Input
Amino acid sequence: MFNLQFALSGWPMLLPLGEAGRGFQFPMYDLQQLNSLPIEDVARRLGLQVARHTCRCFMHDDHHPSLFFSVAKNRWRCFVCDVGGGPIDLVMHRQQLTFRDACHWLADSYGIVERPSSRSSVPQSPSTYIPQLSIVNSQLSIAKGQNSFTTALVTTGMLTQEQMTHAAARYRLGSHEDAVVFLQIDADGFVREGKVMYYMPDGHRSHERKPVSLSWLMKNKMKDGEGKALLGKEWTASHCLFGLHLLSEQPQTVAVVESEKTAVVCSELLPEAVWMASGGLSALNAELLKPLQGRRILLFPDTDLDGTTFRRWSAIAEEASTAMHQPIMVSNLLECHASHEQKQQKIDILDFIGD
Ligand SMILES: [Zn+2]
Output
């Protein structure tokens, strides 16, 4: 249901340029076009014997066809290998090609020509973007369905299944193994970084499995150093607010919280605002708020016993407000209304409205 690959299909092409793309010039095809090529026809061109929407899998010793095609979704999957994807993925796996070469293969096969990028502006500092998430998808398999986070939110009753599906699509949540991937996608649709987090069935974060960043996963878990090569030597994380890409919805009001989970849940429960998350107490700074210029901005800091977080976020709001020439409001709801015990537990707005 939550399939990042589908969520990705509307993304602008990610062009690694400069340092990040050194020796890795990306063919400028319309990826949506390539991924719309009929999947069974692509399979036949790859020499697979397709019959009744199945064929024998080429990745394992398959005697009864276990590779299935969904013509409706234009996708394939082997249920034994648990590997699948769209046309580009099929070419990559069948021909053992890189993403770039698989695009070339498809384009050659169907007579598709490269075209200039339709983007009027390429990123100014591409070494801060994570290029070609589709490779990350197939190699790190962050395109899969449910994960510990989406499951927990529904089973604990925080969100209905419909709300979870809606929110997952809006925030383009991904899955890696059982972890949720919170992507930081900027206002131009570029992925800056991601946070991979494991949740317990009660909806709290796992204490055993520490969160890692998407770039860390790419560097450490992708074969043959491909993740490192993709990012490039000069790559540095350049964070943005989680949910920043939702500026495309032209919201009047943007609410900023600390935790991604709170943003996701509040987006469904309190849809009057577009909810974004700093991703950590100390992660918020005035720079992160600048893209929100011109919106009504509300900050919802977590609470604590001595009001440290509230004061820190108030100071950041003041600095940003001066720089952006507009008011930025900091909610004192929790400072005024949370109980001593709740402050001790350092609750946030979601804990407060959920109680
Ligand atoms: Zn297989």
